[in-house]
Amino acid sequence: MKFFNITYIVLGVIAIFSSNKVNAQISKAEIRATGLTCSMCSNAINKQLKSLPEVVNVETDLNTNTFVVSLAEGNALTPLIFKQKVEKAGFFIGSLIVTVDSETVMKNPYIIVKDSGNKPKQIQVQVLDKGFVTEKEFKKLVKSYKSVATFISNNEDDFHVKILN
Amino acid sequence: MRKLVVLITLLFFQKGISQELFLVTDPASNVPANSLSVNVLQLLFKEKFKAGYNYHVMPEATYGLNKNLMFRITAFVSNRNASLVTEGGSFYTKYRFYTSDDLNSHFRLAAFGRYSFNNSDIHQEQIEIMGHNSGFETGIVATKLIKKLAISTSISFEKAIDNKPNYPFPDNLGDNATNYTLSFGKLMYPKKYTSFKQTNINLMLEFVGQTINENGKSYLDVLPVIQFIFNSQARLDLGYRREVFSSMFRTAPNGVYFNLYYTFFDLKS
Q1: Chain B: residue nearest A40 by CA?
Q2: Residue B119, domain extent
Q3: Fewest 10 Å CB contacts: which of B5, B170, B192, B235?
Q4: Is residue B269 a part of any domain in this protein?
Q5: Which residues on chain B are in Cβ contact (under 8 Å) with A92?
Q6: Chain B residues contacting A, CB < 8 Å?
């Protein structure tokens, strides 16, 4: 009985750790790119995104320049890679919404600046940092979050997010 | 001709989606980082003072080193000496130093430089380092996309040097000039995108002008272009260049352009 208890605890701990590992990932990213209206330009972004080995699929809406990126399980990507890829194609991110596990956004590198109060298992968050929103929006956000020191410092390695659902 | 210009100008200001992949006036935007584009530009210009046509073939390769910096090499082949001869080449680089993007719009500024060498004879007052003169050109270009319309303009300084080894630049001609361009581009088809495979059709209107700094002699050309984009990866451009006015000596100002262009995205993968 005691043996089983220990086994269960060990298994339980392993389960928590491994599930945490799986949860520390982005399962989907919805990118809206700015500054373009041509399909050749969209294709440049499409190819950049598909060059990531973690990317399973990219669905594109050419009329709104929205890219829905499905990612493989167990990836360790952060929102930064999407910014880099879109900028390599010659454009910028107008909005980025990522689907992540609710536990993931509670810790580093994510910082929640606007909470919805709900905590479903999978949540959608919008990244609010510089380079992840349009320039106009960023100017407004700087005013709103001027008390958040990490937001003002524009560190590339942390991501300030707004929970959407 | 004037009617055609008016008609094309009217077409541009109708509703639609715009483009800036111009034929002869490069915009402030660069090719994607880590991509290679190859194209073959062909020109067929009618000789003004003798029978026949002046034919040029210019194979080009363009590489995007990063999001702000691109390079292009060009080879110049022409029939100036009866048979097709490779007369020279060119190095071009462009650096995008300012960009401001919003949803479906952008404003960009870039600086560019070109160095060309050419061994053909010098036969006109017009300075053209794309296939005629040895020399260099440097300038800035601004491109604005306002919702549906792309407008691009540039100003540059161009200087001709000797066409070595046999043709020094003539002393009686001005060897440097100011160039200016103004271009409009617009997507005509499709009205609504459904896939990357859709063929796009663009119409463009490019104005190209030059003033020789020493004596003020000038020309202005207009260049309507129709462009097809296949599979969001290949391009075919057809253009017609026509002199609007000129106070300088030019041997073959009017002619047609035919350009085939292909992009290899993301070389490293």
Answers
A1: B232
A2: 2-30+96-258
A3: B192
A4: no
A5: 99, 101
A6: 17-19, 21, 29-35, 64, 66-67, 99-106, 145, 148, 187, 192-196, 198, 200, 229, 232-233, 235, 263, 265-266, 268-269
**Phi, psi dihedral angles at A21 (to 5 degrees):** -65, -45
- The verdict on a CB contact (< 8 Å) between B32 and A48 is yes
In a domain, B188, yes or no: yes
Between chains, do A39 and B196 touch, taking CB under 8 Å as contact?
A: yes
Planar angle of CA B186, A91, B153, nearest 5 degrees: 45
Distance (Å) from the alpha carbon of A32 to chain B's nearest alpha carbon: 9
In chain B, how many domains are there? 1
Using a CB-CB cut-off of 8 Å, the residues of chain B touching A140 are none
Domain ranges (residues) in chain A: 25-163
* CB spacing of B196 vs A42 below 8 angstroms: yes
Burial of A63 (0-12, 13-18, 19+ CB in 10 A): middle
What DSSP letter does each residue of B70-99 carry, written as one string?
EEEEEEEEEEEESEEEEEEEEEEEEEEEEE
pTM of the prediction? 0.83
B38 in any annotated domain: no
Residues in Cβ contact with B102 at an 8 Å cutoff, skipping those fewer than 6 apart: A34, A35, A94, A134, A135, A136
At B116-167, the pLDDT tens digits run: 999 999 999 999 999 999 999 999 999 998 766 899 999 999 999 999 999 9
Task: Tell me the pLDDT tens digit for each residue of B51-101.
Answer: 999 999 999 999 999 989 999 999 999 998 889 999 999 999 999 999 988
* CA dist., res. B269 & res. B265, Å (int): 9
What fold, for A25-163? Alpha-Beta Plaits (3.30.70)
At CB < 8 Å, which residues of chain A contact B? 32, 34-40, 42-44, 46-48, 51, 60, 62-63, 65, 87-92, 94, 134-136
CB B7 within 8 A of CB B1: no
**Contact criterion met (CB below 8 Å) for A82 and A67:** no
A79 prior amide bond cis, ω within 30: no
Structure tokens at A147: 């008390």
